[in-house]
Amino acid sequence: MHGAGADDLIVYVPEGTVVHDLEGTMLADLVHQGDRWMAAAGGRGGKGNARFLSNIRRAPSFAEQGEVGEEQWLNLELKLMADVALVGFPSVGKSTLISRISAAKPKIADYPFTTLEPNLGVVRVEENFEFVVADLPGLIEGASDGRGLGHRFLRHVERARVLVLMVDLAGGLDGMTVETPSEQAAVLLAELGAYRPELLDRPRIIIGSRADLVPGALAIAETGEPSTTDDGLELDLTISAVTGAGLQRLIGKMAEEVRGARSVEPELDGFVVHRPIAEGIRIEREDDGAYRVIGRAAERAVALSDLTNLEALDFAHSRLKKIGVDKALARAGATEGDTVRIGSLSFEYEEE
């Protein structure tokens, strides 16, 4: 952290971390293992006194100070990196499902919003092929406007390659769930589209869950075939996470969609690349009448100078004159005796 040979300070973050400034502008999207982004550059070290030898200055008694490093406040947001996201109302059986198809151990209970944070589970299909499933907090109507867990839920869906929409064939445990399967699917799709319209273009699988609680549904689940609910919703599959009916067919369907999605990676959202631009000298008048000199070159000349050393001050003044500070002050109307400030340095203006 200090000195010419100091090591970089490296902060490790999970894959899927998005970096924003305090105004909300995205600065970096760290998606892959090994991605790096420089948040703040360290200050350049100062030159030693030997660097200021000249025919006029035979024994310089001053050296440059090191530059102060950059600093900035940042907001870090994690968007989960999952191949498959389980999307559904509270108590639709998402946690039970992920516990049956992976080694994940989510909290499972018969009341809504049991899942308050996403759970990830790895599903291994073959020795050399596996994918990650995210069990996300329950979605409710109005989530795209922030209701319930709102955007905390929806931001994690953005990364998923495949969406599995789960509708509760039994009508829900809590009375909050929209009553019919087709109504549930309509609300889920509406909320996803309101949050990010492109989510509606993702591969999706619509499944009916909790078939063990609905007469005749369990037999359909065991066939592993598509079906249509009484209210006209077309289901890709019907399952019971409790009995296991339909789960192997669901895993196969997920794997098929994940393989296809991985072969065509979507382009990442762009983000702003900040590049330094050439900056001249600007003079501003402060409330007390002093002249403030603004410009990286001028401020840097002062920051690198030892302000307690007269020879260093003289050298700093020659630098400032060379980059045009004296002329800029004269154009701004500065007169003999006016106060001038550059960085932490304050002095009286002298006309030449």
Automatic annotation (TrEMBL):
GO MF: GTP binding; GTPase activity; magnesium ion binding
Keyword annotations from UniProtKB, A to Z: Cytoplasm, GTP-binding, Hydrolase, Magnesium, Metal-binding, Nucleotide-binding
A UniProt-annotated Pfam family: DUF1967
Span of domain OCT: 263-351
Domain Obg: 1-81
SUPFAM superfamilies according to UniProt: Obg GTP-binding protein C-terminal domain, Obg GTP-binding protein N-terminal domain, P-loop containing nucleoside triphosphate hydrolases
PANTHER family recorded: DEVELOPMENTALLY REGULATED GTP-BINDING PROTEIN-RELATED (PTHR11702), MITOCHONDRIAL RIBOSOME-ASSOCIATED GTPASE 2 (PTHR11702:SF31)
Listed name of the protein: Unannotated protein
Taxonomic source organism: freshwater metagenome
